[in-house]
């Protein structure tokens, strides 16, 4: 099962060599939904240097090559994944939920197979047809290619970059945002080659109906809808194929890109930020609200070295190398986190009072939600959160910013392509599950029906009051290496011990009766409720009266009521079973009397 876990602490990332981000890469920078997957070198390889003055980082490796991100988000927090079986979920290496209603999904398996499912608006699933699908469909054309970056627009249209530097596009194309020179819908992934031959794309970003691509040499290409100058060509004519964004970026090495709905932003290697496109709400941070047809530097961030930048629908956030957070643009829902709803035409610092530095920021052009994570692992959210306007950063219980978008964004899209690389890392719960009945690490054995079950005293004491008393109150068993159990069967007792390690039960209803007996004896109320649930799911005409007798015997009132109603509802069939006539007289008499009072024999 995939469980929540914090994003790797970016504190490790803040090691600078001559002002540059060194081999540990920090810039989480997820532009829009782009997945930049951080590669982290070993701690031993880090050399510490005195930090250089801000904005003198020198040449750095392109951002998308420096950020292999490993996280363990529970993707079932996005409802579309809830229909998938555990085995299917465990096969997922990368995933993205997108679309105007968060109704589409693309995911990549550990075998680099690409699957999609969902509503398929504007052919955005790339399956070759316009049919929606609730079952995952494989995109054979993309399978086997390692994905390094993915982003989506509002149409939606999809951009996907591979490890080989290839760029693929599909979906809505009304404004040539697929970059193929036409406005024909892209029903399946197509290689974007125009103007990008011999170019290696490392990162992509989508606005509402325009597209950006970043190459490994730090060049930015743009195409698509250009009514506000978001392509950066110097005009407002739509751009049908990728065109290099030059002007102020001509001699700059860009390390990251992001898009708002109709605006574009780029960070260059020395930490400067440039913006172009629509600026009616100040989302370019230039100090005015005039549209910008070519890139213009944000002077409001002068003297600061920006590591990560993200854009919401019409607002932006920037994170500096000192862990400072700046926000600007529209503020209708409080998405700037300033404590009010006033737009900001220039960057303003927020969360300055927080003791722990900011290490990651999150936003997405599909939403008005913002999030940030601190060095200590605290996750804050603000802006439009499930319909509410949160005007100041609100501390959540989440361990990663992705959970904010799963639970509170509207729509509940992913703000980046998630990468769920587990490798050899196991969570505490996974480690416990793995070590259950392991002779190598166990310090105690139970013998049941001549079979051994290997366990750990410490775990039993932590998880069960019965064992806590046994091992702390000088019981005879405390001194034994093997404890004999003769009151319960092997399947029942093993299931009980396994429950203490996993919180799960895997037993047929008949054995669950024995486990219910054990749970009653050991005063394990939660286990008792789980047993009752299993028994309810397994009730049949043949076993109904036996289960009713067990519920009475173990004082399981809820189960007793359930079984009684089932027997009454199927009275004729139940009274013809062997179990009905094998029950002791008192219970049989009590059942008949109670059923009579309920009017079961009126007919």
Automatic annotation (TrEMBL):
Domain of life from the UniProt record: Eukaryota
SMART domains recorded: BTB
Annotated region (Disordered), positions in chain: 47-66
Key words of the record: Repeat, Signal
Cleaved signal peptide residues: 1-17
BTB domain: residues covered: 442-509
The RCC repeat ranges on this chain: 112-163, 165-217, 218-270, 271-322, 323-375
Protein name per its UniProtKB record: Regulator of chromosome condensation (RCC1) and BTB (POZ) domain containing protein 1
């Amino acid at each position: 099962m995939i469980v929540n876990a914090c994003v790797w602490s970016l504190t490790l990332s803040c090691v600078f060599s001559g002002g540059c981000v060194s081999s540990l890469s920090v810039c989480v920078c997820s532009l829009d939904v782009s997945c930049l997957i951080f590669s982290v070198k070993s701690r031993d390889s880090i050399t510490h240097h005195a930090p250089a003055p801000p904005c003198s980082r020198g040449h750095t490796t392109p951002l998308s090559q420096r950020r292999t991100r490993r996280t363990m988000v529970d993707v079932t927090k996005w409802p579309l994944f809830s229909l998938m079986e555990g085995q299917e979920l465990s096969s997922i290496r990368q995933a993205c939920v997108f679309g105007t209603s968060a109704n589409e999904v693309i995911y990549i398996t550990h075998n680099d197979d690409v699957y999609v499912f969902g509503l398929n608006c504007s052919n955005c699933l790339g399956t070759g047809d316009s049919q929606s699908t609730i079952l995952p469909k494989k995109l054979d054309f993309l399978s086997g290619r390692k994905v390094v970056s993915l982003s989506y627009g509002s149409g939606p249209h999809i951009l996907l970059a591979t490890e080989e530097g290839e760029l693929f596009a599909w979906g809505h194309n009304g404004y040539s945002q697929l970059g193929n020179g036409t406005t024909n819908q892209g029903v399946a992934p197509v290689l974007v080659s125009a103007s990008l031959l011999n170019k290696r794309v490392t990162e992509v970003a989508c606005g509402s109906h325009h597209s950006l691509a970043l190459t490994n040499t730090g060049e930015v290409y743009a195409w698509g809808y250009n009514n506000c100058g978001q392509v950066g060509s110097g005009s407002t004519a739509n751009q049908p194929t990728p065109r290099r964004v030059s002007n102020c970026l001509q001699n700059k090495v860009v390390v990251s890109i992001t898009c708002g709905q109709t605006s574009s932003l780029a960070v260059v290697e020395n930490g400067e930020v440039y913006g172009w496109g629509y600026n009616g709400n100040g989302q370019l941070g230039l100090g005015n609200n005039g549209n910008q047809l070519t890139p213009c530097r944000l002077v409001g961030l002068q003297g600061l070295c920006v590591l990560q930048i993200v854009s919401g629908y019409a607002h932006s956030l920037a994170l500096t190398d000192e862990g400072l957070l700046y926000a600007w643009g529209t503020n209708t829902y409080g998405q700037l986190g300033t404590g009010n709803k006033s737009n900001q035409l220039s960057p303003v610092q927020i969360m300055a009072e927080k003791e722990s530095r900011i290490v990651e920021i999150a936003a997405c052009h599909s939403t008005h939600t913002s999030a940030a994570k601190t060095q200590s692992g605290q996750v804050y959210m603000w802006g439009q959160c499930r319909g509410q306007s949160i005007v100041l950063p609100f501390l959540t219980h989440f361990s990663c910013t992705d959970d904010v978008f799963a639970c509170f964004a509207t729509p509940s899209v992913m703000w980046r392509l998630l990468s769920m690389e587990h490798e050899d890392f196991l969570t505490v719960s996974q480690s416990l599950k793995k070590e259950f009945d392991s002779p190598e690490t166990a310090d105690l054995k139970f013998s049941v029906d001549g079979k051994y079950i290997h366990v750990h005293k410490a775990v039993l004491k932590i998880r069960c009051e019965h064992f806590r008393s046994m091992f702390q109150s000088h019981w005879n068993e405390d001194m034994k290496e093997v404890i004999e159990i003769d009151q319960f069967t092997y399947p029942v007792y093993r299931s009980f011990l396994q429950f203490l390690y996993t919180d799960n039960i895997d037993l047929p209803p008949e054995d669950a009766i024995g486990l219910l007996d054990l749970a009653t004896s050991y005063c394990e109320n939660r286990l008792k409720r789980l047993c009752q649930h299993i028994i309810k799911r397994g009730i049949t005409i043949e076993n109904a009266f036996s289960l009713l007798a067990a519920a009475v015997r173990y004082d399981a009132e809820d189960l007793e009521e359930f079984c009684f109603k089932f027997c009454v509802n199927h009275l004729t069939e139940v009274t013809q079973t062997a179990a009905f006539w094998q029950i002791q007289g008192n219970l049989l008499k009590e059942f008949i009397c109670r059923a009579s009072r309920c009017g079961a024999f009126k007919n």
